[in-house]
Model the fold of this input.
Amino acid sequence: MLNSAHFIFGSAIAYKTPDPYFGIFLAFLSHFALDIIPHYDGPIKDGKEVDSIDYSFLKYDVVVAAPLLIYLYLKFGFNLSVFGGALAGIFPDIMDNVIWWRMLTRKLFIWKWIRTVHKSTHLVFKDKIRYIKVVGTLTQIFIIIISLIWIGF
Done:
């Protein structure tokens, strides 16, 4: 799933949870819940997800994430709970996909276990590529819109 969807949903959860630490924890867990929703997030070869980052798709993610980040800052200032939730929402992807970290994190016992959970909850559309891109992207846009409504856009 796009980091933008994880980012804004994680911040919404942390914002709506009375205890900021529990909210950040829930934002982290939300990553796995969102990955269960069928989506498109990168290269698929022979019907299987490729274990690499699709940097061509990442540029769209940045275009979506930048205005969301600005919006959160303008609405909440630097609210540690909101931005902590946003970071917790994307944390599993950061640890799994950023090349200079994943070499280390994949050797750590706890992260091996979290990565196994992450891979098992990660559901992507595996059908015709046009359908995957359209419907899989729409599910993420829906998550972003719902999150913005939830935090009071």
Remarks:
- The first helix runs from residue 3 to 16.
- DSSP finds seven helices and two strands in the chain.
- The two ends are 22 Å apart (CA to CA).
